[in-house]
């Protein structure tokens, strides 16, 4: 079997790694390059920030009385 040389991002260490070295629940990927793995983590963090803000706004709006 060929060695997996694709890149992964370890969410625990915050580092990219070549090949699946860490447990699957700790990594994202695979990616074609080291840079893609790093970018994927940045994209994830940006989206998570956006989702948290959307949830906060939705929860604020949920408690407001509705006009009929």
From TrEMBL:
Q: From the UniProt entry, list the residue stretches annotated as the region Disordered.
A: 1-31
Q: Which branch of life, at top level?
A: Bacteria
**UniProt name for this protein:** SPOR domain-containing protein
């Amino acid at each position: 079997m060929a060695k997996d040389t694709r890149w992964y991002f370890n969410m625990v260490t915050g580092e990219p790694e070549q090949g699946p070295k860490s447990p699957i629940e700790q990594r994202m990927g695979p990616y074609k390059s080291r840079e893609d793995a790093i970018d994927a983590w940045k994209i994830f963090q940006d989206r998570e920030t956006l989702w948290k803000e959307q949830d906060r706004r939705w929860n604020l709006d949920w408690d407001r009385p509705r006009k009929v």
